[in-house]
Write a structure and sequence with these properties.
By secondary structure, the protein is of the alpha+beta class. Helix content is about 50%, strand content about 15%. The protein has five domains: about 70 residues; about 100 residues, OB fold (Dihydrolipoamide Acetyltransferase, E2P); about 270 residues, no CATH class; about 50 residues; about 250 residues, Ribonuclease Z/Hydroxyacylglutathione hydrolase-like (Metallo-beta-lactamase, Chain A, 4-Layer Sandwich), CATH 3.60.15.10. Helix 24 links the parallel strand 21 and strand 22. The longest helix has 28 residues.
C-alpha cells in the first residue's frame, strides 16, 4: 500500500511543482530527466532504491500529465484570447444572477473551437431562467481565463474553466434536452429552493452553505462572511470530510455497522458529492471515506496516508490545474494535520486531564478543539500565503460551535426530508433548528469582532514572529521532558512574544509625530493618517485587484494596533474610492463618516454606505460647507464641493496637517476645479501631494503643482483600462521637482514623520 502512496505523492508533488515553479517549456525535459533517473535506479537492482525509482517515475508521469493538459486546454484558450466568434454551447449549471449581469458555465461545442468549459457573461438577462442541458448560440468576445487584472490567475483553471465569453449579440436558446448527467445539478437547485422555504431568512443562507456547499448568498452578507473568516469557522460551510463523516455516522447510527450500511453509505457519499458540485475538497473526502468503507469489505486494512495520497492523485489526474485550488490545498493540509497530530494530542490530553474521558460530551468538545489545533501546523502557512491572515481563535470557535454544526447538518437534512412530505411541519422544524444555527452565527460575530481573533501579516515583524514560532516548536521537540511540556512551553512562549510584539508595534506607530500611509488597493485610493491614538482615513475603495479595499485597510489598521477610525473622509462616491467602506466598518469601528452633501451616486454606493454607517452607529456628516477637523495632532481643512460642479468635480478636497507637515488630497477633480479651489483657498507650501485622479492627464495642473510646491507626490493606481497614470502627467509632476512614488510599482507607501516633522521614511 505504501508503494501506492509513494507513487501518488511524487505524482502530485510534480504537478504542484509544475503549477507554481517550473516554466511550461521545461516540463518535457524535466519529465525525461525523471524517466532517466527512475530507469537508472531500477537497473541498479537494489531493493532500497526501488522507492526512489518509483518516486522518480511518478514525478515523470505528473510532469507529463501537466504538460499534456496545458496543451489541450490553456494553450488553445490563449490562442483565442481577444477574438470575437459565434459559438454554440451547452449550459452545464443553472445561471447565476448577479443583478446587472448573469453568468453561466457552458461547454463549447462549435466547429473550429476547442471543447472547453467557459464562463458566459450575459448583460441582457436572456439567460435568466435557463436550465442545464439547454443549447445556445450567440456571438461572443473571448478572453483567456488564466489572466486577471494583468496577472496570472489560477482559480478558474482549478475549476476547469479556461475561457471567459462575453455575449455581444442576441442569445438564442434551444429546447431543453434532458440528460441523467444533469440530475445532480437539478437536485441541487431544487434543494436550494426548498432550504429557502424551510428555514427563517436570517439562517437560510448559512443552512444552504452548510448543507449544499453553496456559499453565494453567504458571501453577499459581507459582515457575516467576514466574521466567520476571522473566527476560523468558514471551514464548516466548505464541503469536506467533516460533512461526509456526519452523513456516514448518521446512517451507521440508524442501521449499525455492516456490509449493508457500508454499501448504502457509498451511494449516499457520492450522491452528496455530486449534488454539492464535486469540488476538490468534497472529492477528496469522498475518496478517503470510500476507501475506509471498502477496506473491511475486501478484508484489507485501510491506510490513511495511502488513502489521502491516492485521493489527491486521482483529483489531479482528472484536472492537474486543481493543484492551484486553495480549498484543495487547505483540505489536504487539514487532513494531513489530523493524521499526524490529532491522536497524539488526544492521548496527551487524556494523560494530563483524565476526566475528559468520563463522558461523551467532554470528549467531543476536546476532540473539536484538538482537531483545530492539529490542522494548524500545515494550514497556517497556506492561510498566510493566500489570505495574509491567521484565525488565532479557531480552536475556541470550534469548541463552542461544533456541537451545533453537527446538529444543524444532520438535522438540516432531516428537516428537508420532512419538508418534502409536509412543508408546514418542515418549516416548524426549521424554525427550531434555526436556533443552533443562530448560535453559530452569533459566536462567529462575537469572536470575529475581537481585535486579536485574527493575526494579519502586513507588518514584517509578525512574519518573523511566525517563522520564529515554527523554529521554537521544532527546537523544543528535541528537548528532554514530557510531550505535553514540549508543546505547552513553546506555545506559552509564542503567545507571550506575540503580546510583546503587538504592543511594540502599537507603540511604534503611536510614537514619533505621525504616519501617513497610502495603501495599495489597486486602481483606487485609501490613505491613512496616524498620530498618537488618533486615526484619520481618506477614501476606502479600489478596483482592478482581487483584494477588497476595506479588508486591506482593516488588516493594515489591525496590524498597526489601531482600535478604530476616528474619522473617514470620502472625497466622492465613485466605486474606486468607496467600495470598501462596508467591509472596513465590519472590521473596525468608524466613529465619524464625512462625505459630500448631495453628491451624485448612480452606482448605488451612497445608499449602501449610509445603511452600513447606521448599522454600526457611525456619526454621519454630509459636508456642504468648508470645515475643519481636529483630531488631536491631526488637523484637516475640508473644502466642500464647489458650487456648480458635477461628477468627479463634486467632491471634497482635504489639506491634512501633522504640525508643519501638510498633505493635499484632491480626489478626482479636474484641472479647472483645481484652479478654482486654489483661487478660493490659499494652499501653500505643501510637503506631500496625493496625485489627483490616479495620474489622469486631466488632473494635476501646472498651476496646482507650482502653487503647492510639494517635494513628494504619490500616485495611487493599479491595473486599469484608462491608461492611468498618464506619462504626460508623470513628466509634468517630475518637471516641478517632485519625487514620484506609485502604489502599482512600490506597493504600500508609508511616510514616517519624525519629531522635527522633517524625517520621512518610505516603506514598501
Amino acid at each position: 500500500m505504501r508503494k501506492l502512496a509513494i507513487a501518488a505523492l511524487s505524482f502530485s508533488g510534480a504537478i504542484l511543482l509544475a503549477c507554481y515553479i517550473l516554466p511550461g517549456s521545461w516540463l518535457p525535459t524535466a519529465a525525461l530527466v525523471c524517466v532517466g533517473a527512475g530507469a537508472a535506479l531500477l537497473l541498479l537492482r537494489r531493493n532500497w532504491l526501488r522507492g526512489f525509482a518509483l518516486a522518480a517515475l511518478g514525478c515523470a508521469v505528473g510532469l507529463g500529465c501537466f504538460a499534456l493538459h496545458a496543451h489541450v486546454t490553456a494553450l488553445p484558450a490563449r490562442q483565442l484570447d481577444g477574438q470575437t466568434r459565434t459559438i454554440r454551447a451547452q449550459l452545464l449549471r443553472y445561471p447565476e444572477d448577479y443583478g446587472r449581469y448573469v453568468r453561466a458555465e457552458v461547454r463549447l461545442d462549435a466547429e473550429g473551437l476547442p471543447k472547453l468549459h467557459a464562463f458566459l457573461y450575459d448583460n441582457s438577462g436572456a439567460l435568466r431562467g435557463a436550465e442545464p442541458g439547454q443549447w445556445l448560440e450567440t456571438e461572443v468576445k473571448l478572453a483567456r481565463a488564466d489572466r486577471k487584472y494583468g496577472e496570472s490567475y489560477k482559480a478558474y483553471g482549478a475549476r476547469n474553466i479556461y475561457l471567459l465569453a462575453t455575449a455581444k449579440g442576441e442569445i438564442n436558446l434551444s429546447v431543453l434536452e434532458k440528460s441523467p448527467r444533469f440530475w445532480p445539478t437539478e437536485l441541487n437547485h431544487r434543494m436550494v429552493t426548498l432550504v429557502k422555504k424551510l428555514f427563517p431568512q436570517d439562517t437560510a443562507a448559512f443552512m444552504r452553505s452548510l448543507l449544499l456547499g453553496d456559499k453565494t448568498e453567504l458571501y453577499q452578507d459581507t459582515e457575516q462572511q467576514l466574521a466567520m473568516s476571522r473566527a476560523g469557522l468558514m471551514h464548516v460551510v466548505a464541503v469536506s470530510g467533516m460533512h461526509i463523516a456526519f452523513l456516514v455516522g448518521f446512517l451507521q447510527m440508524l442501521l449499525g455497522r455492516g456490509r449493508l450500511s457500508s454499501l448504502l453509505a457509498l451511494g449516499l457519499i457520492w450522491t452528496f458529492v455530486l449534488v454539492t458540485g464535486a469540488n476538490p475538497s468534497a472529492v477528496r473526502a469522498g475518496v478517503m471515506q470510500t476507501l475506509l468503507l471498502i477496506a473491511p469489505l475486501v478484508k484489507r486494512e485501510n491506510d490513511p496516508i495511502t488513502s489521502l495520497s491516492a485521493a489527491l492523485a486521482l483529483i489531479l489526474l482528472h484536472n492537474p490545474d486543481a493543484a492551484a485550488s486553495v480549498g484543495l490545498q487547505l483540505s489536504f493540509a487539514s487532513m494531513a494535520g489530523i493524521l499526524c497530530f490529532s491522536q497524539r494530542l488526544m492521548e496527551m490530553t487524556e494523560e494530563h486531564f483524565p476526566h475528559v474521558q468520563r463522558n461523551g460530551l467532554s470528549r467531543m468538545a476536546a476532540s473539536a478543539a484538538l482537531n483545530s489545533l492539529a490542522v494548524m501546523p500545515f494550514t497556517i502557512p497556506l492561510m498566510a500565503l493566500h489570505f495574509g491572515s491567521i484565525p488565532l481563535l479557531s480552536p475556541l470557535s470550534n469548541l463552542l460551535c461544533m456541537w451545533a454544526v453537527s446538529l444543524c447538518f444532520a438535522g438540516g437534512w432531516l428537516v428537508c426530508g420532512v419538508g418534502l412530505l409536509s412543508l408546514r411541519i418542515g418549516q416548524w422544524l426549521g424554525w427550531l433548528l434555526a436556533w443552533p444555527a443562530r448560535w453559530i452565527l452569533l459566536t462567529a460575530r462575537l469572536i470575529g469582532s475581537l481585535s486579536f481573533s485574527s493575526l494579519y501579516l502586513q507588518h514584517r515583524l509578525i512574519l518573523f514572529w511566525l517563522l520564529g514560532c515554527y523554529a521554537l516548536f521544532l527546537g523544543f521537540r528535541f528537548l528532554k521532558g514530557g510531550a505535553f511540556r514540549r508543546l505547552a512551553l513553546p506555545g506559552l512562549l509564542s503567545v507571550l512574544t506575540l503580546v510583546i510584539l503587538m504592543n511594540a508595534v502599537r507603540l511604534d506607530y503611536a510614537g514619533g509625530r505621525g504616519t501617513i500611509c497610502v495603501l495599495d488597493v489597486g486602481q483606487g485610493q485609501c490613505i491613512t493618517v496616524f498620530a498618537g491614538a488618533q486615526t484619520l482615513m481618506i477614501d476606502c475603495g479600489g478596483q482592478g485587484t482581487l483584494d477588497d479595499a476595506g479588508e486591506t485597510a482593516g488588516a493594515y489598521l489591525l496590524s498597526c494596533g489601531r482600535d478604530r477610525v476616528d474619522a473617514l473622509i470620502l472625497t466622492h462616491l465613485d466605486t474606486d474610492h468607496c467600495n470598501g467602506v462596508e467591509t472596513l466598518m465590519a472590521m473596525r469601528p468608524v466613529q465619524t463618516l464625512i462625505l459630500p452633501a448631495d453628491a451624485d451616486s448612480d452606482n448605488g454606493m451612497r445608499g449602501t454606505i449610509l445603511a452600513a454607517a447606521k448599522r454600526h452607529n457611525t456619526h454621519i456628516v454630509e459636508l456642504a460647507e468648508d470645515s475643519e477637523l481636529d483630531l488631536g495632532e491631526i488637523r484637516a481643512q475640508l473644502f466642500a464641493p464647489l458650487p456648480g460642479t458635477l461628477g468627479n468635480d463634486q467632491g471634497i478636497a482635504a489639506l491634512v496637517s501633522l504640525g508643519d507637515y501638510d498633505m493635499l488630497v484632491t480626489g478626482d477633480m479636474g484641472q479647472k476645479t483645481e484652479q478654482a479651489l486654489l483661487e478660493r483657498h490659499p494652499v501653500r507650501e505643501t510637503e506631500l501631494y496625493i496625485v489627483g485622479h490616479h495620474g489622469s492627464q486631466y488632473a494635476s495642473s501646472a498651476v496646482l503643482l507650482e502653487t503647492i510646491g510639494a517635494d513628494t507626490a504619490i500616485v495611487s493606481c493599479g491595473y486599469n483600462s484608462y491608461g492611468h497614470p498618464e506619462e504626460e502627467t508623470l513628466e509634468r509632476i517630475a518637471s516641478y521637482g517632485y519625487t514620484v512614488y506609485r502604489t502599482d510599482e512600490n506597493g504600500r507607501i508609508e511616510i514616517r514623520i519624525g519629531n522635527d516633522y522633517g524625517t520621512k521614511e518610505q516603506r514598501r
